[in-house]
Automatic annotation (TrEMBL):
<feature type="transmembrane region" description="Helical">
    <location>
        <begin position="336"/>
        <end position="353"/>
    </location>
</feature>
<dbReference type="InterPro" id="IPR004681">
    <property type="entry name" value="TRAP_DctM"/>
</dbReference>
<keyword id="KW-0813">Transport</keyword>
<keyword id="KW-0472">Membrane</keyword>
<feature type="transmembrane region" description="Helical">
    <location>
        <begin position="50"/>
        <end position="69"/>
    </location>
</feature>
<comment type="similarity">
    <text>Belongs to the TRAP transporter large permease family.</text>
</comment>
<dbReference type="InterPro" id="IPR010656">
    <property type="entry name" value="DctM"/>
</dbReference>
<feature type="transmembrane region" description="Helical">
    <location>
        <begin position="244"/>
        <end position="262"/>
    </location>
</feature>
<feature type="transmembrane region" description="Helical">
    <location>
        <begin position="274"/>
        <end position="295"/>
    </location>
</feature>
<feature type="transmembrane region" description="Helical">
    <location>
        <begin position="307"/>
        <end position="329"/>
    </location>
</feature>
<dbReference type="Pfam" id="PF06808">
    <property type="entry name" value="DctM"/>
</dbReference>
<keyword id="KW-0812">Transmembrane</keyword>
<keyword id="KW-1133">Transmembrane helix</keyword>
<dbReference type="GO" id="GO:0005886">
    <property type="term" value="C:plasma membrane"/>
</dbReference>
<feature type="transmembrane region" description="Helical">
    <location>
        <begin position="220"/>
        <end position="238"/>
    </location>
</feature>
<comment type="subunit">
    <text>The complex comprises the extracytoplasmic solute receptor protein and the two transmembrane proteins.</text>
</comment>
<protein>
    <recommendedName>
        <fullName>TRAP transporter large permease protein</fullName>
    </recommendedName>
</protein>
Amino acid sequence: MLTFFAILVLLALFMAMRMPIAFAMGLTGFFGLALELGLRPALAVLERTFFDSSSSFILVAIPLFILMAELLTAGDVTRRAIIACQGWIGHVKGGLAMATVGASVILAALVGSSTASTAAMSASAFPEMRNHNYSQRLAAAVVSVGGTLAVVVPPSIVLVVYGVLTETSIGKLFIAGIIPGLLTATGLAVVIKLIAHTTDQAPKGAPFELGKAVKASRHVLPMILLMVLVIGAIYGGIASPSEAAALGVMGSLIIVIFQRTLSFANFNRSVSGAIRATVMIVAIVACSAIFSNYLAFTRITHALLEFVATTSLPPAVIMGFIVVLLLVMGMFMDQLAILSLAMPLAFPTAMALDFDPVWFGIVVTKTVEIGLLTPPLGLNAYVAAAQTGVPLGKIFRGILPFLAMEILILVLLLCFPQITLWLPGLMLR
């Protein structure tokens, strides 16, 4: 047990030194295995674990979904999505902010990365809202919370990583994220509407013009059809997530070529960006597996499962403790770091309590999503502050009412699992 606590202290030390979470977990896991088994057996475990975890076929979906997002982002999708949503609802009070949320849903379904979505919206939607006399606080808060939709709305990279780490069906996770994602977007729109009617932070936009709205939607329609095709192929059992991701890459390439929005230089940047992101994620998955192996050898996971099996605490209380712990971790860490650190212990505990792995995955990702908005880290708020120049404190104050809505939706997902499980239950396979 002393060795285990020493390894935890070493992990905390590496993280305090700002070592990437993948390397911190991999090194501490290897050191722990070396102390438990000896150097040569630890090297053998390291070799087998790294190969097995990084050669899984399901990991193919990660670079493909990232490449699809990179291609569409390079193809000017963000600006066009905002213009299209603005054309339909920008005329009402607070409509431009709600249009930003709508565009964030489209972007979330294309990008899969919360920070990338926030950065894109900060560069395009924030100036548009400021030009229409929206307050700095509301405009920056909206682009921050809108970016979090990429965590839940499929094809979320966080859901893919959770599926790989826990061996849960990624197809079912994608489908399960649809209703919670749309519910979150609706909740954010309700908050915007309330702010618009009780303050002067969100004025009306230009009068509605049907022709202008239809014209603006023409450029976005192919992207929406592509996402319906990708998710529909998974839902109908026609394609696996990896096959659907390949379909998405092909479709996105066809769209940007026909719309003539992708230069050769942007294509190179898209491929390079997809490679960098994929290497980082695969490193996290592999190093998390090394740390999980160390936990297995120390029997810490087994001891925790025995405690869960013999404790008199209700499952709801233990689940509440897990959620609170993840929320606290979200105040200091990014979403992939939380998954890689928490899932080796949290997931077996949830399974021992007979919770559904798909439902648990959506709850975890929703909790992680909230962590992107909470100080002191609040990664999305930092990204928005860097892009917009709005003071961080002002953004966090603007986020507060949205944060209350996010927590309310999390409570609904916890209390009513069918919100999450209804659509996956209808899948053909």
